[in-house]
Amino acid sequence: MVAKQAVLFDLDDTLLWDDRSVKEAFQATCEAGSKAAGVDPAELEEAVRKEARALYESYETFPFTKMIGINPFEGLWANFAAGEQEEFRKLQKLAPGYRKAAWTQGLKSLGVDDEELGAKLAEQFPAERRSRPIVYDETFRVLDALKGKYKLLLLTNGSPDLQKEKLDGVPELIPYFDHIIISGEFGQGKPAAPIFKHALEQLGIEPEHGIMVGDKLTTDILGANTIGMTSVWINRHGAKRTDEIVPTHEIADLEDLLRLLEQ
User: Fold this and answer.
1) For range 72-82, the mean pLDDT
2) One domain, residues 52 and 179
3) CA–CA separation, 30 vs 8, rounded Å?
4) What percent of the chain clears pLDDT 70, i.e. is strictly above it?
5) Judging by beta carbons within 10 Å of its beta carbon (0-12, 13-18, 19+), is residue 107 exposed, middle or buried?
6) Are residues 91 and 115 in the same domain?
7) Least CB-packed of 8, 126, 198, 244 within 10 Å?
8) What mean pLDDT is predicted for residues 160-168?
9) What mean pLDDT is reported for the chain?
10) What pTM did the predictor assign?
11) Hey, which residues does 156 pair with through a beta bridge?
C-alpha cells in the first residue's frame, strides 16, 4: 500500500448514525400518530416512508436532489434555507407542503383522513430528528487515533444547511477535520469525479495518497475508484454486494480502519 497522507470520511452512517436517528424519530412520531388515530405505528411508518418517496420523486427538483445526494427522509426535516442553486429555493418552498402531504397521505392510506393530525405529525418529526444527533461508539476513538498522523477531510452529500445542522448537533466532531466539503455547496455530489478531485486539491495530494471511507458503494466507493483512490467500504450490517462496484478494502467496524492503515 502506498503511504497514505489523508483520510477522507463520509458523514452519514459512517461517522454519524443517521439511520438510527431517523428510525427513532419515525418511531416516536408514529407512536404519537398511533395514540391519536389508533393506527399501528409500524404500519404508519411504512406508509409515510412510501408516500414520502413517491412524492419526492414526483417533484421537478428530484434530478437535482438525486445528483446532490439528498434523500426523501432528509426532506422531511430539512429547511433548505442555504445553497446558491435555484433548486434550493424551490425545495425551500416545497418542503412544508411535502412534509404535511407525506404524513397526511400516509395516514389516509391506513384509512385515517385527518389533515390536522397529518400537519401535527409533520412538525413533530423534524423536532424528534433534531433531538437525536447519534454518533457511533467508535467514531471519536478512531478520529483521535488519526488526528495529527493524517490530514482529515469530511466529504458529505447533502443540503448545506442540513449537513451543517447535523454537524452542529455534534460540535466536537468539527475540529477533527482540516476541510469539510458538502455536495450542496460544491454543486455536485458523490460519486461525481469533480467533487473528489476538489477534495484532493484542498488536501494538496495525489489520489494514491488518499483513502476514502464510506458506507455507500454507489457514492463513496464508486467515486473513489473512479479517480484511482483507495476505497474502504464500511459494511456494518454484513450487506451482500455484487461485483459491479468493488472496494479496495471492506471493513465491518471503523476501528478496522486503524489496523488497515498500520499494515
Assistant:
1) 97
2) no
3) 36
4) 99
5) buried
6) yes
7) 244
8) 97
9) 97
10) 0.95
11) 182
Residue 40 grid cell: 399501528
Pairwise CA distance, residues 34 & 126, whole Å: 18
Report the pLDDT averaged over residues 125-141.
97
CATH code for the domain of 162 = 3.40.50.1000
Nine-digit cell at 261?
492503515
Do 222 and 247 contact (CB within 8 A), yes or no? no
Give the up-direction half-sphere exposure of residue 165: CA atoms within 13 A in the CB hemisphere. 19
245: left (phi over 0), alpha (psi -120 to 50) or beta: beta
Handedness of CA 70, 71, 72, 77 (dihedral sign): negative
Helix 18-37 to helix 41-58 angle, to the nearest 10 degrees?
A: 110
Residue finishing a domain among 130, 154, 177: 130
How many residues make up the chain in this entry? 263
Q: Could you tell me if 188 and 64 are in contact, meaning their C-beta atoms sit under 8 angstroms apart?
A: no
Whether the pLDDT of residue 3 is over 90: the answer is no
List phi, psi (to 5°) of 171. -60, -25
C-alpha to C-alpha distance for 170 and 110, rounded to whole angstroms: 37
The verdict on 161 and 222 lying in the same domain is: yes
CA distances from 65 to 52, 59, 198, 233 (A): 14, 10, 20, 23
- Band of residue 1 on the pLDDT scale cut at 50, 70, 90: low
End-of-domain residue from the set 130, 148, 178: 130
> Can you give the pLDDT at residue 75?
97
What residues make up the domain containing 30? 19-130
Sheet of 179-182: strands edge to edge? 179-182, 151-156, 6-9, 210-214, 230-234, 249-251
Q: What is the pLDDT of residues 187-204, one digit of tens each?
A: 999 999 999 999 999 999
Handedness of CA 185, 191, 196, 199 (dihedral sign): positive
Please state the rounded mean pLDDT for residues 77-106.
97
